[in-house]
Amino acid sequence: MAAFDLEEQERVDALKDWWKQNxxxxxxxxxxxxxxxxxVLGWRYYKAARADQAAESFAQFETTAEARDVxxxxxAARKLMEQYxxxxxxxxxxxxxxxxxxxxxxxxxxxxxxxxxxxxxxxAQMQNIARLRLAAVLLDQKKYDEALKLLDDNKDPAFLSLxxxxxxxxxxxxxxxxxxxxxxxxxIEKALANSPSRQLMQxxxxxxxxxx
Length: 212
Known about the structure:
The protein is mostly helical.
């Protein structure tokens, strides 16, 4: 019994010595764990709260946009773009503001919003849409080569038809009829059979005739 008590006391003393030497490390490790867990939970809460705030701001933006006051729509869009640049709502606001600016004849404002969407959108689909719309603005500004280079980044097969169609417009505007014909042909081949744009693509191809 005495031997057992002695061994037990030795283990207790050894544990006390270990604790004295390592307690700082243990406290630091525990603190790091608590901070890490708290950080993950806090980040998730923060992201959820930010998403809710962005959705609320976008609802307010839509109300502003419906009034079709171009300046107010642009200002509201830029506010969303500045406050929630990572949100899909900001990208949608940029596209809406760009459309209104283009329709109002302000090509520079439309181009600026669309470039922002191309650079900042987190969705590849939204980036593709923004590139197509920006290419249309550049076509209107006769910046053909810049638009064609921009469209080279639209590699998603789902956008192949629309991208080829836009390239056809750009080539046709430059008088490069062979390239335009090739692009329109590809656009028609890749378009869905029931796509409403397919007939328009065919009309544009037919208008080129056999000219070279």
